[in-house]
């Protein structure tokens, strides 16, 4: 059963039907520069110990910095942060320009106004297909009560969940 009866585009379109939250993963590289990117491949792994995972394309220009980071943070975006999600998904821009952030307990940048934030120490990396899966131990987490999340579905962002 090693053959597939669908194209990569059909697979991407079918996966797009799974609604996800939207995150910005942030870290400091070895030279102390901020790095961040938009990711919707995020979920919990374990409660004890508290573990989360997210994945990144092997082709990402941020891969070396994130693989070498001593800590990273997953910032779950609020509905009013769609423009941040778009900015951190772009190439060739200063993603942090004008962004309200502070250094977390781990030193990783924390995006202000996020629905939730998970500060993590890297635990393991797993090479699978065209992505690397990052697993981290959560050292600190926080949440913003009453905030609505930004949702991604079918290639679009949704900020009003009553639709």
UniProtKB/TrEMBL annotation:
Domain Flavin reductase like: 15-159
SUPFAM superfamilies assigned: FMN-binding split barrel
A GO term, aspect molecular function: riboflavin reductase (NADPH) activity
Keyword set, alphabetical order: Oxidoreductase
Domain of life: Bacteria
InterPro entries tied to this protein: Flavin_Rdtase-like_dom, NADH-dep_flavin_reductase, Split_barrel_FMN-bd
Family of this protein: Belongs to the non-flavoprotein flavin reductase family.
Protein name according to UniProt: Flavin reductase
Organism: Aquabacterium lacunae
The organism's taxonomic lineage, starting at the top: Bacteria, Pseudomonadati, Pseudomonadota, Betaproteobacteria, Burkholderiales
């Amino acid at each position: 059963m090693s053959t597939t009866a669908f194209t990569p585009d059909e697979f991407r379109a079918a996966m797009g039907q799974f609604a996800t939250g939207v995150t910005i993963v942030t870290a400091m590289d070895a030279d102390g520069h901020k790095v961040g990117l938009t990711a919707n491949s995020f979920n919990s792994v374990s409660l004890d110990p508290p573990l989360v995972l997210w994945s990144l394309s092997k082709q990402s220009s941020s891969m070396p910095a994130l693989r070498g980071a001593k800590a990273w943070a997953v910032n779950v975006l609020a509905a009013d942060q769609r423009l941040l999600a778009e900015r951190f998904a772009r190439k060739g821009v200063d993603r942090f320009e004008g962004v309200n952030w502070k250094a977390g307990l781990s030193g990783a940048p924390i995006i202000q106004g996020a629905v939730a934030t998970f500060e993590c120490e890297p635990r393991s990396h797993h090479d699978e297909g065209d992505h690397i899966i990052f697993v981290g131990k959560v050292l600190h987490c926080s949440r913003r009560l009453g905030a609505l999340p930004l949702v991604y579905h079918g290639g679009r962002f949704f900020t009003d969940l009553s639709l």
